[in-house]
Structure formats: structure tokens, C-alpha cells
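ok here's Glucosamine-6-phosphate deaminase, seq below lol
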Amino acid sequence: MEVVIVPDAKAGGELIAGAVAELLSRKPDALLGVATGSTPLPIYEALTAKVTAGAVDASRARVCQLDEYVGLPAGHPESYRSVVLREVVEPLGLGVDSFMGPDGSSDDVLGACEAYDRALGEAGGVDLQILGIGTDGHIGFNEPCSSLASRTRIKTLTDQTRVDNARFFDGDISQVPRHVITQGIGTILEARHLVLLATGEGKAEAVAQTVEGPVAAVVPASALQLHRHATVVVDEAAASGLKLADYFRATYAAKPEWQGL
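and the structure came out like this:
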């Protein structure tokens, strides 16, 4: 696993946006998997700035969701479809037809899960998947003890995750849905490049367990250790629990410029 320690969230966003830009230069119609929440916003802001400045052409890019709440009405501002359209698709100047995601309002949720998992494969697979990490080590909505071979499916959120997400619902946990559709860990691992961004001291323990701990279902993000091309980008606060932090700094500093992330 490649670990890159950056000074702050903005630097992490710039670094990952650069990797996305490089991908689009090689593969203009690349399928970019996006995560929601506050952590990846610096990535989308930096990528939008590059597109606006004409430094990267994203006109043929495709975007897909990592997860979606179950039961929110269509068009709800905190549905992840709405969030991705607002924070990624529209700022990049993409059309709605460039976007794909699971239907969390479907009457047949299990069927929606299977349909989305199948659609990702039919689209040629995800080229680069952006990930965040929960304080308990979850990725997507794969909560602790999720199967490492799991596919896109419905999950019940833990109380901690609902508490963490209440800030998006005016602090009212009762408004946070109890169920979600999420790409499974097995589905996530099929992406060609996984890039996880973590910032803040609150993520330090989860990052340390993900990078330096054993691969274990109790820390779903640790499955990234099994991937052939996984990059973990962390700020100094999120790196504070890493025993090998100095080694990671030295390794990345010595990396040839042409190699990229």
C-alpha cells in the first residue's frame, strides 16, 4: 500500500486531483468513483479549478456513486445522488447522462443493488475510486465485520455512523436513514486504482489500523492491503498514529516524478 503524508487537506486534494487529471489525459472517458462527505471536497474543488482553467478536459469523464441512502425521496438535498450532482457533476460541466448510481428509492431495493453492481461491470469497471474512511474503519457503508468479498448490497448503519452523519441533517439523528445501498468491499476492490483520503486526528486510529494492522473484517478499510494499486493520502494529523510515518515520508520523497500516484 502506498501511503502519502501531506501537510493538510488542501494539499491532499491537489495531489489526488492531479492523479485524476493524469488519468483523464490517458483515458478521457474514464469512470471515476466518487465518495461523499466533507473529506473529499478539496479533491473536487481542485479538480474543478483545473477544468475551469483549461488544464484538464473532463468533458468525456463518467462518474459513479459509492453508496446511497435508502428511503429518501427523489431529489432530497442530502441523497447522495443530489450531493454528487451538486459537488462533482455540475461543477465539472458534465451532463446527467455521464452519471450512474444505485436507486435508493426503489420499491425493490435488493434488485436495485444487483442492478447497480451489474451496471458497473457493464460500464467497464471503475478506473479510479475515491474513498473516505470512518472513525471505525468503514469504507463506503461497509461497517465493521462486513464480508471482505461482499458485493453491492443493503446495509444497516451503526449508531456511530448515524451520529457522524447527523451534521448533514441539521444535527438531527432522527432524520438520518437507517439503511443504505453500498458497493461491497469485493466490488470496491475491483476498481483499478483505489485512493483513500483521510484528514484530522479523529481518523488517526482508523488509518493506523488500515495501513499497519492485520487485514480484518472488523476494520473494513484494511482490505485495501489486498489491492494491487491502493494509495492512502493523509494529512499530518491523520498520520499521527502511524509507526512507520517517517518511512512513508522518505519513500514518497524518493519516488520518481514520472511514476505518479
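fwiw Helices lie at 9-26, 41-52, 80-89, 109-122, 159-165, 185-188, 204-212, 245-253. kinda neat tbh
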